[in-house]
Amino acid sequence: MTTEQSKEELIAELDQSVRETLSYFEGIGQASEARIDQWGAWEVLAHLPYWHYATAWGIESGTAGGPPWLLSAGADELNATCLKLHEGESFEELISQLERAQERLVRATQGCVDLDADALGMPGGRMLTVRERLRMITGHWRNHARELDEAAG
Q1: What is the pLDDT of residues 61-75, one digit of tens each?
Q2: Buried-most residue among 8, 69, 85, 119 (CB within 10 A)?
């Protein structure tokens, strides 16, 4: 039988993943010319704030008795929009935004009373719970940094 992680465990894993990933981008990631498909380190960094905020908005809405955050488009379209919106911003600016987004997401999660409540609505109607989103973000961040590091050799 699988034991569900507590809120504190989920937050601790998320924090660790974010710290590790931001450490990569604060250091060797900025100088890396590695690419995963069409994305380099800047593109990876630039799409992350929206997803943190969207998750926090969904958690906050649910905590207040409202609906989950509904995504207006698929991930590829939203990511492309994120890159356009952050055009011209430096690594330092993006890292600062991500640090604030992480603080907000942690605060929202700490105030969440039901980790199995819907937090994010995907196009097509699929709903992701708070627990699913936190796990997804944790793995997503780690995978991006690992893939870029491996592509750099």
Answers
A1: 999 999 999 999 999
A2: 119
